[in-house]
Amino acid sequence: MSDQQRKRMRDYVLLYVNGVRRCVRGKDVFLSLSDYLRQELLLTGTKVVCAEGDCGACTTIRMYSDFSEEKKLTVEMFDSCIAPLYLLDCTNVVTIEGAALGEGDERMSPVQTAMMNSHGSQCGFCTPGFVMAMTAIFASKQLQLKQGAGASLGKEKENLTEAEVLEVREGLVGNLCRCTGYVGIIDAAKSVPWRLMPFLLQHQWSVEIENDLLQHRAIPLKVVSKEEGLGQEQEKTLYAPVEVEEAVALKREQQEKLSIFSGATDLGVQINKGRFAVKAVLNLSNIATLFTLARDEERAELIVGAKVSLSRLQAECKETIPELYKHLNIFASPQIKNLGTLVGNLANASPIGDTIPFLLAVAARVEVMGAAGRRVILMDEFFLGYKKIAVTADEIITRIFIPIPAKESVLKIYKVSKRSDLDISTISASFLVNFAAKEGVIDKIRVAYGGVAATPLRFLKLENFLQGKSLQAVANSEYKEVEAILRNEASPIADVRGSAEYRADLVVNLFKKFSMEMEMEMERRK
């Protein structure tokens, strides 16, 4: 790092909380946001129940200008119990206390009033999370209309239609009411006349706040915390560079000592459970180029930067890769997808990572940058073993290139879990098939499974066996051979989510499901 860069470096995290400027230094930087709000600011309206990002009681909102040329205002809900405070650098955090327009019942926000009038609160512990989630949903829709992006919730009607209610329900899947008072909660959402109101969070945003945050976002950050623990001084360091080259230089200097944080939707849970401790953190949240999400029309692929959230990716895939769009709908809650990233899901290297079989099936490529410059790793070569990836100690992942399946090909993504939505996979699979001109004959197929070995993997023997065969012939006369190949290629283990035998059966059954759906697809194409 040059002397000039050191001179312009700041030693604090800047955020606004309900419009109040906060410069955070030292050990507080490494708190979860919910702990900072509750313990340091005494804003106890934000509740912590699961500390895993599952129940939504801790839901808060962040407001910030995105990295586009227009610097568009973005409003997002997220789970503050697993979000380290430093990830909120250069944002305005809005809590349940800030959602209100002032003091007293007469100053409650429209969402709070609707919850009260609809009897949407019983024990009340989940209520702040539901109010914040609804506020984020409606405020985001207001912004979309204002910014000209359009909104699916209509324009003229005061109340929501049934289709619109479904959209709100999907927005609330990350919030649990243990009293099961969902009828009153949904009634509250139906009664909010959001189109007829001023911007719900206008009292939380100003030109002054925006300019302050933008100016600080351009300044690199280093915070050192020293505190006593276990009889000795413990030091933690936070780095937040603003250029990829700076991040690479830091990784080269510290290598394994430096933990890279993207959205912390997994590591945040591990920290809360005492399973992961940080000494040096590299926060990538202020590097503009890592937020790039673009479509390369010539190569027919999506370019996904390391800091592109799963929410942004899902929105992009609605038209380009609809099967992935549907899959991401059950992947996680909006709170998790607003923080989590595709690159983080990949780099976590879990055998049951939900997006990885898809990336293997479409032959995605991973760009990394290190001391030797940039290089691209094929997905087939990315995993070296359990939780081991082909990224060296001095490299960081910068982008993923995702080929967009051709219109004539068929992509299928499957996930089996104990719950149908928002749950860890027991097993997952992805199939990409191109059919030859001859009806039903497989020209090319790629098959990938997760949760069946130490790493997600392609079933190469199955691919070779199926190529050039018709699905009907496989189903009628060669299915036992296919089943034997499937069971031979999988080597699952037993754990709390399922026995090895159960997983082996799922491998076979998911292929059966795929075959049946392909038969229906062939009928549809006739």
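The record above closes out task 2.4. Task 2.5 opens with a second protein, given below.
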Amino acid sequence: MYAETQRILYDPVSWIHPHRFPAIENLSSVRCQSVLNDLLLEGFKLSTDCVDLNNSRERYIISHWALLPGAALMAACHRHRAKLARSGLIAKLDKVTQQFALSCLTESESQGHERLTAQELVRLACQEAMAFSCSLSVSIRERVPLLFSSSPTISHSAVYSENDELLLRMAIQHAKRAS
């Protein structure tokens, strides 16, 4: 747990979404990685304060960090499966995500005849992950959006009221079994 926490805090090059900071092959030496990590910490103004490993949610997120983007996508697909079906995107999902999206865990959120785009789906996935991170330390919470290609431009308080912690935990477990 300690090593994974240190990696999340001090080695963002190892996990940041490639659209946020494209990796450059010529800069793969340890020294270059160190400089890039410093640039990322500075550029995104990432806190390196201690994390609260007494917080069970924080420990859970840290131990499943690599699965979080995929699980958040699964949760978003499940929550918005009616819109996905109308958009025709549900057939384009990978089998694991499609299986989770079509399971009968919760009601699908559906407003009118809205359709989803792939970009909107990424935003909703990030929103799911951000909602789950509401009670985490600042150091972890501010890194969650960097796991995604883009972040929603909404306040944390708008996200939390819609959070379904159980759905994301189930998505993480589904992703874990599939990997």
